[in-house]
Amino acid sequence: MNAITRLLTVSVISLLLSACSTVPVTGRSHLNLIPGSSMMSMSAQQYGTFLKENKLSQNQQQVAMVKRVGARIQGAVERYFASTGLQGYLKNYNWEFNLVEDKQVNAWCMPGGKVVVYTGILPVARDDAGLAVVMGHEIAHAIAEHGNERMSQGLIAQLGGVALSTALSDKPEVTQQLWMSVYGVGSQYGALLPYGRMQESEADHLGLVFMTMAGYDPNVAVSFWERMAIQKGGQAPPEFLSTHPSDATRIASIKRLIPSVVKQYGK
Ligand SMILES: [Zn+2]
């Protein structure tokens, strides 16, 4: 190994180490190579474009429901971070909750708390508590920075170790392209590719915590995912069509988590 290679290796390793962060609630350590500021600015831009290109619901009752449940989950997330002394975690959050007129059984949250719920998921959600399962789960993906993690994995796969620091500082188009691979897929799929099994389980866990802290009954998550399992015969988009974890495994894990979540985070 010559001096330059050694220097590059050392700087890549230190970059990787400094980019390692911890997921709230679960404490899992994960790799976030994309600067938070880049994630937030891409999110704000893409969210704005999405809202311009899609039809916002005019159903005032349903719009109010989405904003009401969103605000309660937001409050819970803020209390969670206040209780752990990590309020700074949310400093670039600029929450928005919008309901889009679309038959897809879908919802998502981009970094910074930019939430979209599709009208197609409301019959499955049924009521505020069911919607809290959906929004808690989606907000959990954003809080756990799963998008950044996937982009970071993509970056490593695409460029290999030594090109990392160069790509991040000198090639904003690489970051943009990775963003599109995670958040910007074709309109037939909504905005997100399916997450991995670990990330789905983690979002279920954090979502349960947030909905419980928001004052909703976490047991509703079990009935929601049971309804979703029946729904999946149709044309659900990847986030909710995802076959991993399987419905039975997911529901069993949620059932297992509920007693400890209620004990630790219930009122
Ligand atoms: Zn998910």
Helices and strands, with pairings:
Elements: H1 3-18, E1 20-22, E2 29-31, H2 36-53, H3 60-83, E3 96-100, E4 107-110, E5 114-118, H4 122-125, H5 128-143, H6 146-159, H7 164-170, H8 172-183, H9 197-213, H10 220-231, H11 238-241, H12 247-265
Parallel strand pairs: 3-5
Antiparallel strand pairs: 1-2, 4-5
The chain binds zinc ion.
Would you give an account of this structure?
It contains 12 helices and 5 strands. The chain has helices at residues 3-18, 36-53, 60-83, 122-125, 128-143, 146-159, 164-170, 172-183, 197-213, 220-231, 238-241, 247-265, and strands spanning 20-22, 29-31, 96-100, 107-110, 114-118. The strands form 2 sheets. It has a 3-stranded mixed sheet with strand order 3-5-4, sandwiched between helices. Strands 1-2 form a two-stranded antiparallel sheet. Helix 3 crosses helix 5 (128-143), helix 5 (128-143) crosses helix 9 and helix 6 crosses helix 8. The termini are far apart. Mean pLDDT is 84; it is low at 185-191. The protein binds zinc ion. Residues 137, 141, 195, 200, 203, 239 line the site of zinc ion. The site of zinc ion (ZN) has 6 residues, from helix 5 and helix 9.
The first-to-last residue Cα distance is: 58 Å
**SSE run:** HEEHHEEEHHHHHHHHH
Helical residue percent?
55-70%
**By helix and strand content, what is the structural category?**
mainly alpha
| Assembly state (oligomeric) | single chain
Number of continuous helical runs? 12
**Overall body shape:** globular
Poorly predicted residue ranges: 185-191
Number of strand elements: 5
